[in-house]
Design goal:
5 strands, 12% strand, 5-stranded antiparallel β-sheet
Length: 286
């Protein structure tokens, strides 16, 4: 029987262990420590597992662990709920890894009509890889007016929002706080990768970003995990200037994600967003 090596699990445990300071756990930090974080024996003791077993996990000599053991380790390492979920995904066996990735690159007519009808909201449908499958006029105008409006309809031209953020200077320049945006992009992609460890297209996307962006590669190696589903972003738009927009993500029944950006009602930002719509309408009239 082929021995399965789970390097994802081992490297992730090591990164998380090195992140925790001994004093956070009520441990003395005096003496010689090769790394700033916890020692393996300390994690094992806190998690209630043997040092040998924990070491085998971290050195990728044991591919998987039971959910109970992983939850104990997550508590010992003080993981967030997103980090804990990611650990469970990469630390337990994949069901039917030979199964092809599901085809979720289709958008139903009903969803298309919904997206188009959201006049003062910038809305798009993304798959879990963050490929844009459909967008309304305002989303297109907000993020990528330099691309054709029909681009999401064609697989070979389909924009990917994370790829654009890192590799398209016009899109990247929109974000006032690029440091936060870049980190949230990578932590989200890492979170998603836990659920789709055998998707060749996702692996290809991560590989391309790693090769073409040193910044992405550095952030990816940190192995931080977060599922970014709502929040606020600041934009500096070349047409309407500063925009503070709230964003939310909603899971659709077909496995895709509805992403939408909106401004606080009766705020200057809502007025600016409406200006973008007016500008768009005037373009359509000519």
């Amino acid at each position: 029987m082929e021995h399965i090596v789970n390097t994802d699990l081992g490297s992730y445990l090591r990164q998380m262990r090195e992140r925790v300071r001994p004093e956070q756990m009520g441990l003395r930090s005096s003496g010689s420590r090769r790394v700033p974080g916890l020692r393996r024996e300390e994690v094992a003791a806190l998690a209630g597992v043997s040092q040998t077993y924990y070491t085998r996990l971290e050195q990728s000599q044991t591919a998987h662990a039971s959910p109970q053991v992983l939850l104990s380790i997550a508590r010992a390492l003080q993981l967030s709920s997103d980090e804990r979920d990611y650990l469970l995904k990469i630390g337990t066996p994949v069901q039917n890894p030979q199964e092809p990735a599901p085809r979720i690159d289709q958008v139903s007519p009903y969803t298309r009509m919904l997206v188009a009808s959201l006049g003062n909201v910038a809305a798009a449908v993304l798959n879990y890889r963050c490929d844009i499958l459909s967008w309304n006029s305002l989303y297109h105008r907000l993020f990528a007016p330099h691309l054709g409006f029909e681009a999401p309809e064609h697989a070979e031209q389909r924009p990917n929002i994370i790829k654009m953020n890192f590799l398209d200077d016009e899109v990247r320049a929109l974000y006032t706080d690029w440091a936060t945006e870049s980190e949230s992009n990578v932590t989200y992609l890492r979170f998603i990768s836990g659920s789709h460890r055998h998707d060749p297209q996702l692996a290809e996307l991560i590989g391309e970003l790693t090769i073409q962006s040193e910044e992405f590669a550095e952030l990816w190696c940190r192995q931080r995990v977060s599922n970014c589903i709502e929040g606020t972003k600041l934009f500096d738009h070349p047409v309407v200037g500063e925009l503070e927009l709230m964003y939310q993500s909603a899971d659709l029944q077909d496995g895709n994600i509805l992403k939408f950006y909106h401004a606080e009602p009766d705020s200057p930002h809502e007025a600016a967003l409406q200006l973008l719509t007016v500008d768009l309408n005037s373009v359509h009239q000519h």
